[in-house]
Amino acid sequence: MRLPEKNNTLQSISDQIAGATSRGNLQVGITGAKMDSRKVIPGDIYICIPGFHADGHDFAEAAVKAGAAALAVERYLPLDVPQIKVRNIRQTAGKIAAAVFGYPSQKLELIGVTGTNGKTTVTHLIESIAQENGKKTGLIGTLGSRIGNRGIPGQHTTPESAEIQDLLNQMVEEGVNTAVMEVSSHALDLGRIVGCRFDTAIFTNLTQDHLDYHQSMEEYLAAKGLLFAQMSGEKPGQKAILNADDQASEYLMTKTSCRVVTYGIEKKADYQAEKIVLSDKGIYFDLVYKKIREKVFFATPGKFSVYNVLAAYAWALDNGYESEKVQKALCNLQGVPGRFQSIRKGQPFLVIIDYAHTPDGLENVLSTAREITGRRLITVFGCGGDRDRGKRPLMAEAASGWSDYVIVTSDNPRTEDPEKIIGDILPGMGKVDYEVIVDRRRAIHRACTMAGEGDTVLIAGKGHEDYQIIGTSKIHFDDKEEASAALRSKGYAG
Ligand SMILES: CC(=O)N[C@H]1[C@@H](OP(=O)(O)OP(=O)(O)OC[C@H]2O[C@@H](n3ccc(=O)[nH]c3=O)[C@H](O)[C@@H]2O)O[C@H](CO)[C@@H](O)[C@@H]1O[C@H](C)C(=O)N[C@@H](C)C(=O)N[C@H](CCC(=O)O)C(=O)O
Ligand SMILES: Nc1ncnc2c1ncn2[C@@H]1O[C@H](COP(=O)(O)OP(=O)(O)OP(=O)(O)O)[C@@H](O)[C@H]1O
Ligand SMILES: N[C@H](CCC[C@H](N)C(=O)O)C(=O)O
Ligand SMILES: [Mg+2]
């Protein structure tokens, strides 16, 4: 297919959107696309989204004042500016933005990673492997975006569709060959990846989360299915990489018509881990594929880590990369910020910061910490406000089941009362000694103060985050800084 050029006129964009109607001067040139009036610059098309809290159509005037050359609307607005009208603008926004930017996802290798846990980790593994193989990389996800080694901050795990197309376009312009992106279930449901053409879609796992947004696990799974449903041969060589040990993969397999590659530990898979050795240094296993057997090591401990590494290996080896280079990339990476990250200040116990914020994530990370701790396991955790309430007691079950002592605290209470969130957590606490310390700083200090030789303190839920969201304000807060300060106050300066 010959791809249309960028810097389109509104006419040519409108022609590429099925069912679009238009009015006004369609010869106006469009150089960018925005879904937020506050970010509009001259030449942009402003896409008006009727949202959960506000209606983007109400900001069209502000967008025009900021220089919007045109509007994309669901209903024509009485403004003297060219407009195109479509029926479901949320689900069409990505197509409009892709047309504006000349379909950037068709011009590079694009990998999408979805699943409840492991997306950030797998995308970082893939980025590292691609770089080791001489590729210029792009990354989009929870830790922000990156083009080569240049970081670009972001708000969401998967940004809004216009932002994605803009980022992919920048990547193309800067010579990126391989772009890898976390694809959240919100993003899938809200059409944020419409307009993206993936070469590879990877599934990590599905366990409970986000049931505040999706009505049930079935709906949550159906949202994940949208990524695989759009893998229908539009790019040559498209493949889906699925976790054979997760039951959801059976459903996802029925959704896609592209080639399927599997990885796993328990069930037979194309890329299989055998002879797994879990240690406090990391994971060791034999990777078995196509009658080949190779030794693999990665510095993040835990069985869950084996799955993440398998997913990345499956992508790399299926792409024809040499396994020595993949192993080298894994060694270079060491770990991912805020994922099972050790804080070492010379103290005779372990302090680990981790981003586990789901029952399954917590279960995995705590079972791993349990195996490596010399003595007690002291866990600090809380649950996010304005998020799935159902996961709160389940996270308590995991924390109390694996720990010797638990400190229940706050984790981004947002607009909820922190004490009420803790009230939802406590019914899930099993038989374990615990205390409630609402103030996260004090909770972390308490854990580090009570820890003795051989103990492990696991501080879960916020990982890389450097903020605490209280009400609608975001204040600086960093578990790593807090743990370091607590250790300093105990006399460990290492
Ligand atoms: C449910 C959800 O995802 N909502 C997102 C959605 O909100 P919304 O549609 O309600 O937007 P709205 O605030 O009503 O505004 C409507 C439109 O007017 C626009 N606007 C608004 C004000 C203004 O002055 N000018 C303007 O143009 C907005 O940009 C928007 O396009 O669009 C907003 C603008 O992009 C997002 O900020 C908002 O994310 C909220 C804050 C959020 O917290 N989302 C989380 C749950 C999320 O998306 N998480 C996923 C999953 C994370 C994971 O992996 O666990 C993620 O991908 O990050
Ligand atoms: N494959 C996995 N299975 C289960 N738990 C995992 C897995 N990988 C990581 N975890 C746990 O989940 C936490 C989050 O991992 P990661 O950030 O890679 O997931 P994510 O899918 O990107 O999360 P988010 O939805 O917030 O973007 C980790 O800190 C770890 O505790
Ligand atoms: N991307 C996830 C991260 C949760 C991290 C945890 N710290 C919280 O705030 O619940 C979410 O927005 O649900
Ligand atoms: Mg993530």
Q: Which characteristics define this entry?
A:
Udp-n-acetylmuramoylalanyl-d-glutamate--2,6- Diaminopimelate Ligase, Chain: A, domain 1, alpha/beta, ATP binding, UDP-N-acetylmuramoyl-L-alanine:D-glutamate ligase, binds ligand UAG, six-stranded mixed β-sheet, single chain, Protein-Tyrosine Phosphatase, Chain A, binds magnesium ion, binds 2,6-diaminopimelic acid
Helices and strands, with pairings:
Layout: H1 10-15, E1 21-23, E2 32-34, E3 44-47, H2 60-65, E4 70-73, E5 83-85, H3 89-100, E6 109-114, H4 119-132, E7 137-141, E8 144-147, E9 150-152, H5 161-173, E10 178-182, H6 185-189, E11 200-203, H7 217-229, E12 239-243, H8 248-255, E13 259-264, E14 271-279, E15 282-289, E16 292-298, H9 303-318, H10 323-333, E17 341-342, E18 350-354, H11 359-372, E19 377-381, H12 391-402, E20 405-408, H13 418-425, E21 433-436, H14 440-450, E22 456-460, E23 467-470, E24 473-476, H15 479-489
Parallel strand pairs: 2-3, 3-4, 4-5, 6-10, 6-11, 7-10, 11-12, 12-13, 13-14, 18-22, 19-20, 19-22, 20-21
Antiparallel strand pairs: 1-5, 7-8, 8-9, 14-15, 15-16, 17-18, 23-24
The structure holds ligand UAG, adenosine-5'-triphosphate, 2,6-diaminopimelic acid (API) and magnesium ion.
Residues 117-121, 142, 157, 182, 204-205, 304, 307-308, 339, 354-356, 360-361, 364-365, 463 line the site of adenosine-5'-triphosphate.
